[in-house]
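Why do we bother with a discrete structure alphabet at all? Because it lets us treat a fold like text: something you can write down, compare, and reason about line by line. To make this less abstract, here is a complete entry for Helix-hairpin-helix domain-containing protein. Read it the way you would read a sentence in a foreign language you are learning: slowly, and without expecting to understand everything at once.
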Amino acid sequence: MRSFCSLIACFALFPFSSWSQQTDSEWIEYLQKHTETTDSEGLPTQEFLDLLQQYSENKIPLNSCSISELEEFPLLSGLQSRSLMDARNKLGRFQNWQDVLRTPQIGFEDVKMLRNFFTLEDQKIYLTSNNHDIRNISGKLYSGVGLKLNNLPNYTDYHGSNYRGFTRLNLKSQKLYQINLGIEKDAGERLFHRNKIEFITANFSLTPKSGFIKQVVVGDYFLKSGQNLVFGLPFAMGISSNPEFLHRGGSLLKPSSGFNESSFYRGIATEIKIHSISGALGFSSTRRDSYINSENMLSIAASGLHRTSSEVARKHNATHRNYNGIIQWNHSLGNIGLSFQQSGLKSREASLRGSNYSLFWNANFDSGIFFGELAVHNQGRSFNGGVLVFITKNSSLSFFARHLSSLSRNNFTSPLSALSSGSETGFLVGYKFKIHNRWNISTYMDCYKRPVAFIPDQKWNSDFQIQAEFQNAKNVSGYFRYRNRVRSSDSSSIENKSPVAYTTVKHSIRIHIEIDLSENSLFRSRIECSGMEPSQTSYLWYQEFSLPIYKAKHHLRFRLAWFKAKSYDNRIYAFESTPPLIFSIPAYYGHGNRFYLMIKSSWTKKLSTWIKYSEWVYLDRNWVEVNKKPLKTIKSPEVQVVIKYTL
């Protein structure tokens, strides 16, 4: 406790000198406030971060976008989307970001986030003799590599080299068509496997200007309906500091260009709209990694890693086919629809077939939104839904209930595998309000049950969180967060196989401060304390700054963090700013420090580079070198380089 108090004192007495800037990865900081937790549950997935990266590259015109585009954006709730649309209709257009801030349900942190993905400028349309000329295109090319500079003793020997490399190309023509192409290899993998590149993702999407066909996608794609119980998306489920995010909306079909090797469909899909009826049809056939699980059932290996002999042996050893469909009736008061998925997974050892069907609805009222989805599949039913209510123009109440059977928790294998630990029943109550555009306070209580293996009596788990965000009249902002988590689990002895039920309680407190002194510079400081019973306490304290150098053509960001955690179970997560398409959410455990230095350089209007050097320094590891000398201090450095060229 004394060490914690001393850290608090250091935090309070630190001479803050600060800066702020909207960089390409600044939206990562918003995720820290709203999706980052002190354990692995709730952390955003790689494909979710890839999706946000695409939004940051192609900003949405806030003064001309539709309600469906607002609802589709994953960091806006349904209530916030409606509030923005109502405010824009009253004003005619948003003249500046202060107009956006005056919108009910939109706080200053929301505005900081929106500036990374939306623009108040009207979308430019360049008229030519032929507006559909395929030569009238624009695009972006990214290429990057991440390399660990040493291999620590006792690390597994992988088949491939220890760097991660990728290249992604995006071409588009004034919303008429779009081409995405990407290749990637993970650290430890070979670039070529059986004379083929380790992983390739590609698609071509066409958006006709007229007619009932809204979009056609050939290649890799996502489908979306209701609360995503049938198809799933990277952000299908998850609890954040803003409980309104549990409501989903938006378009039915979206091209995929991320590097996740399992969470996508590969084939052809089309989205149509005839008057008030919209729908989508898709067919997918692709090779997946598969294995026989502990229940002697065929399952998809979702990691997509092919580093060891066992991982390489199961690479693309099964065929996965899907037939998908959505039909939806739209009205000014909401929508209602049906969705289905027929799936088949076949390998040499086994084969499985399954199906999912669902009914989903969204009802919009002046005082709130009523939404939900009921899904039926091979071995059960699932429900996911709730209500969002305007209490006042600056406050909202959320209620969310769910019963998720085992088959609906892993969306892309949902008809194909059943894990008893995946079932869940629970409810969430959340409240959010804004005070004078200076304070945002949000809280939620989530209670749920999950089956505990070998123990018939299910235990209630709970999560409670309260977060207060503030900003003064000038340049200081920050937030305070308290979280309490109660988990029930079991431990069984291998010798007598007698299970023992136990409960873990985890508390965490976070204080985060930011100070802005100029438009292009920023300073941050955070302290976090996490405690588990019995008597396990973790600490994380970091200081970070960013500032422009040499006529603002280069931008430097530096962070130094100190951490101490007795066990991996009591680890603490913290987002890091990274080069595009390389996302870092390191887990701090053990005892030591970590620092990184990143420089972004804009050489021309079209060419930019990012170089990041990071290093872990562990003070409590006991590895032994080849010469049998003990290592009292372990260092793990890494370099990441990304090049971006705008076509």
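What the structure line is telling us, in plain words: The chain has a mean pLDDT of 78. The first strand starts at residue 60 and ends at 61.
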